[in-house]
Specification:
Layout (H helix, E strand, L loop, with lengths): L1 H10 L6 E6 L6 E9 L2 E5 L2 E6 L2 E5 L1 H6 L17 E2 H18 L1
Antiparallel strand pairs: 1-2, 2-3, 4-5, 5-6
Helix pairs in contact: 1-3
The structure holds zinc ion (ZN).
């Protein structure tokens, strides 16, 4: 995960915060996660990423993350409704979100 986030920041060297927009994999609420580099790695505000299986990630809202910070069981997550990202999908989703925002400025 850290390697992935580092790649994103290398893509947007001028940004101090990268934003992920998606849905909580557990309750489906919209989540906006601010990703901020810290001295020890990365800080996430507004939600969290959870490793679901090897190289797959889901986003969780803070409430669901508090209840269960572990991976989402596959039978709970419906891939047709709630997004599961592999690294490439997660990366492209974040890139497109932040590219759109750059264009709007
Ligand atoms: Zn949730």
């Amino acid at each position: 995960m850290e390697e992935l986030l580092r790649t994103i920041f290398e893509t947007f060297p001028e940004k101090s915060t990268i934003i992920f927009k998606g849905k909580c994999s557990h309750c489906g609420v919209a989540v906006t996660i601010d990703i901020i580099p810290t001295s020890g790695g990365f800080g996430l505000l507004g939600g969290a990423f959870v490793e679901c299986s090897t190289d797959k990630y889901v986003a969780k809202c803070p409430d669901c993350y508090k209840v269960n910070s572990k991976m989402v069981e596959p039978f709970i997550t419906n891939p047709n409704v709630l997004p599961i990202f592999d690294k490439k999908n997660l990366l492209s989703s974040i890139l497109s979100t932040n590219l759109q925002m750059s264009e709007q400025v």
